Amino acid sequence: MDSSSTPLLQVENLSKRYLIKKTLFKKEFFKAVDKVSFTLDRREILGVVGESGSGKSTIGKLVLKLIQKDGGTIKFKGKDIYQFTKEEEKRFRRETSVVFQDPRTSLNPRFKIKEIVEEPLIVHNFPKEEREEKVKKAITDAGLDLSFLDRYPSQLSGGQRQRVAIARAIVLDPDMIVADEPTSALDVSIQLQIINLINSLKKDKGISFLFISHDINVIGMLSDYIMVIYRGKIMEKGKALDILKYPIHPYTKLLIASLPAQHPSQRDKIKYIPEVYREEIDGGCVFYSRCPDATDQCKTPPNYKKVNNREVYCHFV
Q: Where do the domains of the chain lie?
């Protein structure tokens, strides 16, 4: 197969569970990620959206091999990341990176910005004469001028700190970045700046992003494709514009209905969907207890159905 036609990232039936209770005769597990499958192509942004605790960040950690999977396969550039040689593992660490949610905790407060951005280059044994130029390029590509290199994180605003985190992520020229809620701790105006920066990095540098957020509005502004997650399972997956304009799964509709009106005059046009709470069941649809459209049929698990170039986890599509 031509390497250019191979997806950058290919995930199949990815699963992760955590032990929550153990007795002499029984173990109880929480399924953080439940048989998730998706692909991420070059120069593409895949948005992963869902409420807190839905498993979004766990997916990001799994594809970067920061935590161990319990099932499924993860292929990067066509090869299983669990079958890498030592050299392939080193290359994988250079070709992938991450931007965390809160730059106040992800940036070392004792390091100057130059040291923070330079650290990945030191880890990967770049010669000293190369490091300075790469650090300068990364910081300017992230939208900051060179004067910031002599400052400490405490001297920067939230948006500036997140730009430093992005500079650190791109200094090795990665092919893929996992951006885990990178805008949630920022003001709305700063969020837009970071969104525009990520978009330009995709276009200018060809970086692919797995962009994780609980805000479907932010996801919609940035992503080529959207994957809606609830309790570790994909509810709906497809092109971003299709999902935002014509949501199919009841959970996707709830997420979109939760968005505030852009103008007070549009409040009357919002279609409110009532929140439903039922007793949870074992073995059925994971969204059964909250679904406004659920019937007894939902007490059995649905299969994924392909509808209008989308995959939807629901009986009634």
A: 3-245, 249-302
pTM comes to: 0.91
Work out the percent of the chain whose per-residue pLDDT is above 90: 77
Predicted pLDDT at 2: 42
| End-to-end Cα spacing for the chain | 35
Domain 3-245 -> CATH class: alpha beta
User: Would the pLDDT of 121 be above 90?
Assistant: yes
pLDDT digits (tens, 9 = 90+) for 32-55: 999 999 999 999 999 999 999 999
Average per-residue pLDDT in the chain?
A: 91
How far apart CA 227 and CA 259 sit, in angstroms, is 18
Q: Determine phi and psi for 29, rounding to 5 degrees.
A: -120, 150
Of residues 36 and 308, more confidently modeled: 36
* pLDDT tens sequence across 188-198: 888 889 999 99
> What are the φ and ψ backbone dihedral angles of 157, each rounded to 5 degrees?
-80, 170
